[in-house]
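Replying to the earlier thread about multi-chain prediction with a worked example.

Input:
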Amino acid sequence: MTARVRSPAVGHLDADCFYVSAERVRDGFLRDKPVGVLGNQGACVIAKSYEMKAAGVKTGEPIWEALVKCPEGIYVKRDFRWYEVLSRRMLDVARELSPRVEYYSIDEFFFQAVAGGGQTLQELALAIRDRIWDRIGVPVTVGIARTRTLAKLISDAAKPFGALAVIDREAEEKLLAGRPVTEITGIAGRRAARLAPWGITTCLDLARADRRQVRSLLTATGEALWWELNGDAVQAIHTRRPAHKVLSRGGSFGESTARPVVLYAWLVRNLERLIEELRFHGVTTGKLTVAIQYKTGHAGVGQRALPVPSDRFDLLLEAARPCLRMAWLPGVQASHMHLIAEDLSARGQYALDLFDPPQRRARAEAVALLKEQVNDRHGRFALRSAATLHLPAIYRDVANAYDICDIRGKICF
Amino acid sequence: MCVGIALAWSELPTELIARNGLDRRAHERGGEREVRFFYRDRQPRLPIWRDGRLQIVRWGNGRGQSQFLPATGWTWQTTIEEGYWRNLEAVFVDIPASLGFDHGVWFRIRQGIRGILVPDEHGAAIVYMICEPASHYYQIMTRSTRMPVLIEERI
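Result:
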């Protein structure tokens, strides 16, 4: 949340079923067919085409459920390297047509909408959509409005392959009246349930509600949305990603496991990935959390504060090991693990640990540097901890070497 | 086990379609026609590229027409490497495919699948699909422990 910003208009660009569209850019055979992109090592549909959506398949659904709903669907493997290439090309086009662009996520940007040379905002929306389609081949929808929240609602309403600028209040209200309040980013089930007893079920209900009441129900975040729905821009466009407050790495195992040695291998893999990220951002962590999800629906969490903030493998592993023990439910099949680094501080801006001998520190630094250099030269994970040898299939598949969270500079996941 | 493939209709010459009655195997997906070849068909067939020509040949020996060829439609890559097929006048062929089908999952194939073509004792050409242990991804996607050997592709 940032200070109130006066902006003439804000645009929201959202690629239509982006991963599928990206696959279709390089593979024309997939056009007009029901297509699902699989993640979680082949277990889940992480993106689907409109044809597959029409059959009832939902994002995040296991492939075995999707097959029942859409037996004619074609399944392809995710490739985040390729999706990033197209995403950055789209970003370049957006930057040609706007002075300020926010790289919100791999397939969504916000931008300052400035119509130039006798052009209307509607023509600008069309120009961006068409230029991306002509140059890159990815269908996108563009919405332009007075605020970010309104622009996103408009682009959602105009999907697929739409371009719509709505600036006058009458047209805004007509649009807001037809959209449930849950379509606003930041208002999901629990918040919507808090609003419902007050008769607030549509976006227009929220816009017309008493501002103080909205604040009491949804805190300052909800009040910001209220301002935005009423045309007052309070959310800025970030042309650079603000510094991370938290960094995390992890995800699904694909295949669930109860084997301690495999769980430990995942811990080490996630820790190595987390350290890469800490070092890239030049930060250290003062608190580490290991979170495990189990097939039974249970979750286990272990947390440790470090004596001094660190990005060192040996010290972080020392902290992560007891966290894993705390989070571990013996004999229960685990499906996901996340490693979360909090209390981030700039590297070098902390007192040294009295009980960390300088020689050990120097050796750990030298090992970290060598690891970085070898992996830069020979490919990611070429040099890694031997504990990860219990995940041979994960490392054999190059697709696992690059994930959505490895695409840097985005505001959101 | 990959028990079926689909090939875009446009990939097949009209004359070949007519000669082999492939229109019976035609289906439509997303407004485009394709020809499907299943091992479970009464007459299992596969398209192959041989000597620069696209042909339709019998897929395996599942119905025991041959007394000496294996009664299956697949062979392991390792079996070939061990020389099992050496004395059977076997030749490598490419099986063109747009899609593969395994445990109800249609998965994309960019070029095709490696196959081995052998004559039976009656002189008929029989193709076997070459397979290898499934990759982790393939195994999770299809729940199969073996996958076809794809041409210049690994999934």
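The longest strand of chain A covers residues 334-346.

Feel free to reuse this layout for your own posts.
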